[in-house]
Design a protein that fits this description.
The chain has a single domain, classed as Leucine Aminopeptidase, subunit E, domain 1, CATH 3.40.220.10. The two termini are 19 Å apart. The longest helix is centred in the C-terminal third of the chain and has 24 residues, at 152-175. Strands 1-6-5-2-4-3 form a 6-stranded mixed β-sheet, covered by helices on one side. It has helices at 10-14, 34-42, 46-52, 90-106, 126-137, 152-175, and strands at residues 2-6, 20-25, 63-67, 76-81, 111-114, 145-149. It has 6 helices and 6 strands, in the order E-H-E-H-H-E-E-H-E-H-E-H. The protein is α/β, with parallel strands linked by helices. 42% of the residues lie in helices and 18% in strands. The protein is globular, with a radius of gyration of 16 Å. Strand 3 (63-67) and strand 4 (76-81) form a beta hairpin.
Length: 176
């Protein structure tokens, strides 16, 4: 899986070419923040209205598929519940990332833009979130490219983790 980054800015998201946008949101965080908040704004509050009407909750394990066009440059918008903010730990983050990747696989999505669980509230360190994505991503070879929505400082923290994984993969392929 190739990993790239984009800043959390709607204009930058508009420049991307990808099949789907996959975002997480918490059950107990209102208003919506960071990437999901930006996307809600671009969708004129569609996600917030779904929350108010009880069509979405953010509970752990929840998954929603919303058409993203014409307001966003993606065909599909996936929303994944991450449960309660305070309950987010490594086990929950792994569960949510696995759910995201499995859902994208089942939808035959090979290139996606995503925000990882725990990153919208800095509940999970960037390096740790990246390790979880790479570990789970190794089990999903169908995922060709993932673009992570992260601010610059988080991107800088995540890049060494990505580079170590690339070196490890190269060393393993040379050993074969």
């Amino acid at each position: 899986m190739e990993v790239r980054f984009v800043a959390p800015d709607l204009r930058r998201l508009d420049e991307l070419k990808s099949e789907a946008l996959a975002l997480c949101f918490f059950e107990d965080q209102r208003p919506l923040r960071r990437a999901v908040g930006l996307v809600d704004w671009r969708l004129c509050g569609q996600i917030s209205r779904m929350l108010l009407r009880g069509r979405a909750t953010g509970r752990l394990g929840e998954a929603l598929l919303i058409p993203a066009r014409p307001r966003l440059p993606f065909d599909k918008l996936f929303l994944f519940g991450a449960g309660d903010r305070d309950a987010l730990d490594e086990e929950v983050a792994v569960q949510v990332v696995e759910h995201m990747l499995t859902t994208l696989d089942r939808a035959l999505v090979r290139t996606s833009v995503m925000a990882l669980p725990g990153r919208s509230n800095d509940g999970l360190a960037p390096e740790h979130a990246m390790r979880i994505l790479l570990e789970r991503g190794a089990r999903h070879p169908e995922q060709d490219q993932v673009v992570l929505i992260e601010p610059g400082e988080a991107q800088r923290a995540m890049m060494p983790v990505v580079e170590r994984e690339r070196r490890r993969e190269r060393a393993e392929s040379l050993e074969r």
